[in-house]
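# nightly structure sweep
# worker-07 picked up a monomer target from the shared queue
# config: single-sequence mode, recycle default, output format = structure tokens
# input follows
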Amino acid sequence: MRVLALDYGSARCGVAVSDPTGTLATPLEPVARPGTKQGLDRIRRLAGEVGAERIVVGLPVSLAGGDSAQTRETRSFADRLKAVVDVPVELYDERFTTALAHQAGGAAALDSRAAAILLDEWLRVARPPADR
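# output follows
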């Protein structure tokens, strides 16, 4: 199962995709202004291009697990995304992904590296058993 992961930010959205076996996550080019009509359309087209069967959106919760303004904005983005794609969209805790992406380094954009870390974690821990 191919999964597309998004590290949402209002200016840029990091993007990563799993391989067909759901084992590896690869960062892709970020999407600019993902909450706009053009940004949502780009994500919709990208999901189709890679054959994504699910989209996982990183949810920025506080260290204590609470919501913030960014959490609410991300939930709103995920709701708008659900309206334009034909695959399930789910939220997943993204705590520490950006810090880990900084430490890991690499040539890909930082937010897309964070999306790949988010996707690696989701594939390892949260992927539904039927999809393994």
